Amino acid sequence: MTVEGSIRLLGDSEAALGDEIDNCRTLNETDIIEKFDKLVDAGVINYDYTYATESRKIGGLDFEFRISNVLKSKPKDPTIPHITKNGTVALKQRPGSDINTHGSEIGQLGESHFLAFNGFSCYRPHYLLLTLDGNRRQWEPLCIDDFRAVHTFLGCGGDNLVFFNGGVEAGCSRLHKHLQAIPKHSFNGNPWRNVDENADAIPFAYFEQKLKINSTPEATLEVYRAGLDFVERSLGYKTTEQNRAPPHNVIMDGMRMLVIPRRAAGNGVVGANAAGMLGMIWTQSEETMQLWLDAGPHNVLEQGGLPGLI
Question: DSSP characters for 163-227?
Answer without folding.
Answer: EEEESGGGT----B-EEEEEES-GGGG-TTHHHHH-GGG--S--EEEEPPTT--HHHHHHHHHHH
